[in-house]
Design goal:
With 286 residues, the protein is α/β, with parallel strands linked by helices. It has ten helices and eight strands. Helix 5 links the parallel strand 4 and strand 5 (159-163). Helix 2 (52-71) runs parallel beside helix 4 (98-117) and helix 6 (169-182) packs across helix 7. The structure holds zinc ion (2 copies). Keywords: Hydrolase.
Length: 286
């Protein structure tokens, strides 16, 4: 068991209001963590407004966090985007301004594309669709942002983390068709936070994804999925909302517990935490 190391396939850090990457990295490393895919948080998490400038500042925070985590010896890939829930939130408060809100979001994505081109971040995320009922205007805006970002990711050969509605078969079918239409490499599109039903269908379409590292979900995942996905905490590093996601070290403990219980073997865990990560993200295994 000593040789087992663990990856967090999707998480956020907040150095302003939460633990920040330095604390997270130290604790995650001592639990056996070696890799983190770090994703930007919407500006309001840091106390910035949701103007273009607020987004630029929040992406700057991500870049600094990414650098700090790497200096502590973690392997990392870093992603910035416009969260679909943030778009939903803004448009539902002000549907008449939908076009303006969309244009700002696209400007943010274009700004991120420049940072990707300059090697300051590795890709886009998260973009997509919220997992709850959406105002039609917000749904359209998120769809446009998703297509625009997928096209940029394809052109730049960059990764993209997708936040989706967990619709099972229809979600997997839609993303599979969209990926084909845009002709982006499937290795670059990572569907995050999938439930088991959506994950099963995603595997039928050879899509790459992460599942939340909660014990019940992992139990199901280990039983019913091929080891061709990754595990995530989706930690949001918000001390005011401790229960909404797992701590990165909790997903490690949960995997170790299921190993000890005989629900999963070392080989399977190695595939998720090392093989998949090094293959998908082009990083040297530890
Ligand atoms: Zn998400
Ligand atoms: Zn997330």
């Amino acid at each position: 068991m000593e040789k087992l190391v663990f990856a967090d396939g999707h998480m956020h850090s907040n150095p302003v209001k939460g633990l920040g990457i330095e604390n997270i990295a130290k604790r995650f490393s001592s639990a056996g963590g070696w890799f983190i895919a770090l994703v930007s948080l919407p500006p309001h998490h840091f106390g910035f407004d949701n103007s273009f400038d607020g987004y630029v500042k929040s992406v700057d925070v991500l870049i600094r966090e990414c650098r700090a985590g790497k200096e502590l010896g973690l392997k990392m890939r870093c992603f910035a985007g416009v969260h679909p829930a943030a778009v939903e939130d803004e448009i539902s408060k002000n549907p008449k301004q939908s076009m303006k809100i969309l244009e700002k979001a696209l400007m943010v994505i274009d700004h991120i594309a420049k940072l990707v081109k300059n090697g300051l971040i590795d890709g886009f995320g998260e973009v997509g669709r919220p997992h709850y009922k959406s105002l039609p205007e917000a749904f359209i805006a998120n769809t446009i942002i998703l297509k625009h970002t997928l096209t940029l990711a394809k052109d730049l050969g960059a990764w993209i983390h997708l936040h989706l509605e967990q619709g099972g078969e229809i979600t997997a079918f839609d993303i599979s068709e969209t990926v084909k239409a845009i002709s982006i490499d499937k290795k670059l599109t990572i569907l995050h936070h999938l439930d088991i039903a959506t994950a099963r269908h995603a595997q039928q379409h050879q899509l790459i994804f992460t599942v939340p590292g909660k014990i019940q979900i992992l139990k199901e995942a280990f039983k019913s999925l091929k080891p061709m996905y990754m595990v995530e905490s989706d930690f949001i590093d918000d001390p005011k909302r401790p229960g909404v996601s797992s701590y990165p070290w909790d997903i490690v403990d949960n995997q170790k517990k299921l190993l000890l219980d005989g629900i999963v073997d070392e080989n399977y865990l190695y595939k998720l935490n090392v093989d998949m990560v090094s293959k998908i993200y082009d990083v040297e295994p530890p």
